[in-house]
Amino acid sequence: MKRWVLVLTERGSDREGKRGRTAALLVVLGGLIGSWGVGSVLASDPIGYGVPIWPFADTADRAENALLSQVVPAVRGNLPLNDENVQVLRRTTAYGSAFWTLKLKVAGEVRCREVAVGPDVTSRRVPCS
């Protein structure tokens, strides 16, 4: 004689597992997209953002950072620059800071950068004009 037995399972247990895996996948995907976005922003101007290191900066960026580290003491002291790779395009003093627009020759390229030296040193790339 056959006996039929009713077996009950929890319906939600498998769905919760799928939801957890889906949520984990979305978190990992969001982390990858976010890190790519942050990396692309940092790579646009690694000197200005203060990260002149390998994944963001190339050899020209590192050479530009080394040249700027030599220029900053001259900007702080308002001294003339004695380097053939640096040309001062404009000097301005405002808000307690010195703003110098520099034309830099690094690694076969010509780049322009505005350097603001006050209590802190900041810079940004500007178009050469």
Characterize the structure shown.
The chain is rod-shaped. With about 130 residues, it is of the alpha+beta class. Strand 3 and strand 4 form a beta hairpin. It has a 4-stranded antiparallel β-sheet with strand order 1-2-3-4, covered by helices on one side. The protein starts with 11 loop residues before the first helix and ends with a strand. It is about 40% helix and about 25% strand. The protein has 2 helices and 4 strands.
Helix content: 40-55%
How far apart are the termini?
97 Å
| Radius of gyration, whole Å | 28 Å
DSSP strand tally: 4
Assembly state? single chain
Structural class: alpha+beta
Number of helices: 2
Mean pLDDT: 81
Task: Describe the structure in brief.
The chain is an alpha+beta fold and 129 residues long.
Keywords:
rod-shaped, four-stranded antiparallel beta sheet, 129 residues, alpha+beta
